[in-house]
Amino acid sequence: MLSMHSEPNYVRTCMDAGARGYLLKNAVDLELIDAVRTIAAGGQALDPRLGRVSEPDAAAPALTPRELEVLQLIVNGRSNREIAQALGLSANTVAVHRANLMQTLGIHNTADLVVYAIRHGLASIT
After folding, report:
1. Does the global pTM surpass 0.85?
2. Which stretches within 1-126 are classed as H helix?
C-alpha cells in the first residue's frame, strides 16, 4: 500500500485489514522495488520512516468506531460543539460519548483522556 498517512493507528488498521506492505508516497524508487520484492517473497514491507508499528494494547478496552472518532477530535482539541458539528450529532450526544469514553477507560478528565489515547495508539496528534 502506498499512502500519505503515517499515523500508527492508520498503518496498523491497514495491516490488520490485510495489507502486506505500507510505504509513504514519498518513498524513493529503490524502496519501492525492495518492498515489491520482499512482498513477492512472502514477507512484509514497512516504510522505515514509520518507525515501529506496535500491536494494539490487548489490555485496552474495545471502543466503538464512533467513540474512536470522537476521541480523535478530542485529541485535536475540539469542543463538544465543534465535534457535534463535524460529525452531524448534537452536543449532548457528544457529551455522552465523552462520558462513556472516560467511564470505559477509567479516566476522570480530558487531559488524561488525551494522554491515554496517544500512549495507547487510539488517536494521534494531527
Report:
1. no
2. 8-16, 29-40, 65-75, 80-87, 91-105, 110-119
